[in-house]
Amino acid sequence: MPELPEVQTVLTTLQPRLLGLRIERVEVFLEKIIKSPHPREFVAWLQGRSITGLGRRGKYLLLELDGTHLLAVHLRMTGRLVYSNPDTPRDKHTHLVFYLNNGDELHYHDLRKFGTMNLMLIDEFAAFCSQKDLGPDALDPDLTKELFEKRFQGRRGQIKKLLLNQSLVTGIGNIYANEILWRARIHPERTVQSLASVDMEELYRAMRSVLQEAVAGRGTTLRDYVDGEGNPGSFQSQLAVHGREGEPCPECGKEIIRLKTGGRSAFVCADCQPQTKRSEV
DNA sequence: CAGGTAGCCTGTTAGC
DNA sequence: TGCTAACAGGCTACCT
């Protein structure tokens, strides 16, 4: 589910509510969500710790505890982290509840149970990222156009697959990959080697602008996504191509088609995103 | 090595 | 209406 804009929205909605609160108790209803440490220690380590900061790296939401520990939450497809009142009912998909010292709760809800949590020392986070081979965050101010292009140099394969590869740049998923490629006027099946420098420049610009606009729109809710307060996003109304098979391209009016590449749906305007190089058209 | 598929899960939807 | 199959935003392991 959530890609960079959605995780960012969860972060900004949770931050003012959670900051400074203490986790009194943790109840785990589905242990498989907890990847490390062992669920027993996970609970013991968390209890009594204060939330001293919130952050994000790609699609990981980060809770800093006591300034020493870090809880990395990945929502995968259908995970939700929602600030809740004690009278909020817990349904069968609520797998973890954090009881807070002000009487409120933080609920982890996940229909498909793909989400993960890793608790670690802050010092271990760099090793965690390199073990997961996470590239720079797609909205990292330090990720310049030049650095972005460099990361794709020497790589092979279809550009869409590489955009989804979190080791090159982290935070982009299927929705925004489709939107970014449309805005950059690049066909998803073009290979990186076939892209000129101007194409990579367009791609970088499209990546930044699409993601920034999606953050401003509080993310995209197609089905399951809600923010830290349980509210859906609004960017779905601004999607140009994703999920819009058969609708007209907002740019040229030609019908949007759906392709299958890399096992994922790609939505394309065949006119705006030609398979050949720009100069050859 | 690039590309494809299956698997992890459950619910919704398209098609018969 | 009821049933079945395909599909859904992520990521990994494994196959060709």
Give an overview in words:
- By secondary structure, this protein is α+β, with helices and mostly antiparallel strands.
- It folds into 2 domains: 4-131, Alpha-Beta Barrel (N-terminal domain of MutM-like DNA repair proteins); 145-280, Helicase, Ruva Protein, domain 3 (Orthogonal Bundle).
- It contains 7 helices and 11 strands.
- It has helices at residues 4-18, 39-46, 125-131, 145-152, 159-164, 174-184, 197-216; strands at residues 23-28, 34-36, 51-57, 60-65, 69-74, 79-84, 94-100, 105-110, 116-121, 257-261, 264-268.
- Strands 2-9-5-4-3 form a 5-stranded mixed beta sheet.
- Helix 1 runs parallel beside helix 7 and helix 6 (174-184) crosses helix 7.
- The longest helix has 20 residues, at 197-216.
- It is globular and about 60 Å long.
- The chain starts with a helix and ends in a 13-residue tail after the last strand.
- The protein binds a DNA duplex (16 and 16 nucleotides) through residues 1-3, 6, 32, 59, 74-78, 93, 110-115, 156-158, 161, 164, 166, 173-176, 220, 222-225, 242, 261-265.
Topology:
Layout: H1 4-18, E1 23-28, E2 34-36, H2 39-46, E3 51-57, E4 60-65, E5 69-74, E6 79-84, E7 94-100, E8 105-110, E9 116-121, H3 125-131, H4 145-152, H5 159-164, H6 174-184, H7 197-216, E10 257-261, E11 264-268
Parallel strand pairs: 2-9
Antiparallel strand pairs: 1-7, 3-4, 4-5, 5-9, 6-8, 7-8, 10-11
Helix pairs in contact: 1-7, 6-7
This protein binds a DNA duplex (16 and 16 nucleotides) through residues 1-3, 6, 32, 59, 74-78, 93, 110-115, 156-158, 161, 164, 166, 173-176, 220, 222-225, 242, 261-265.
